[in-house]
Design a protein that fits this description.
It contains one helix and eight strands, in the order αββββββββ. It is α+β, with helices and mostly antiparallel strands. It has one helix spanning 2-21, and strands spanning 36-38, 47-49, 53-54, 60-63, 69-71, 76-81, 97-100, 116-121. The model is unreliable at 15-30 (pLDDT under 50). Strands 3, 4, 6, 7 and 8 form a five-stranded mixed sheet that branches. A three-stranded antiparallel sheet has the order 2-1-5, with no helix packed on it. The protein has a domain at 36-121. It is globular, with a radius of gyration of 23 Å. It starts with a helix and ends in an 11-residue tail after the last strand. Residues 1-22 form the signal peptide. Keywords: Signal.
């Protein structure tokens, strides 16, 4: 009986040590800066603030002049187009829209010719996914 009690006590003490030494690291679910489109790589150069719609649905469109990089929050979902006012010509096979998230490698080296970006902030979204 003493042996069982000592094992149980050791187990409880080991768990309390884990609980003390493994406190959760606070991770921001949403950053507090305004997303930007910048003229230089990696968020450098002249930056323009992007309009953002909160929640799922049609994002806020911002006209831009061929940005090279984007600075996005983890809950941003942005789509770039090669036309002003976020318009797409569905009859033109070369007219494309590209979706961007904060952890995408392409946000630091955007395709040339982007004329507008539509952005939204979706609470709970983390780089395009909803964590479980």
């Amino acid at each position: 009986m003493f042996f069982s009690a000592s094992i149980a006590l050791t187990f409880v003490l080991s768990l309390s040590g884990i609980a003390v030494h493994s406190a959760p690291v606070k991770i921001a679910a949403r950053a507090d800066f305004v997303p930007k489109a910048c003229s230089g790589p990696n968020g450098t150069g002249t930056c323009v603030e992007l309009g953002v719609t909160i929640g799922d649905g049609r994002g806020t469109c911002t006209n831009v002049d061929s940005p090279v990089s984007l600075v996005l929050n983890v809950d941003n979902d942005c789509v770039s187009t090669q036309n002003p006012d976020c318009a797409l010509d569905f009859n033109n096979p070369n007219d494309v829209a590209v979706e961007h998230f904060s952890d995408d490698a392409d946000i630091n080296n955007l395709a040339p010719g982007i004329k507008s970006i539509s952005c939204q902030a979706i609470p709970g979204l983390v780089n395009g996914l909803f964590p479980q």
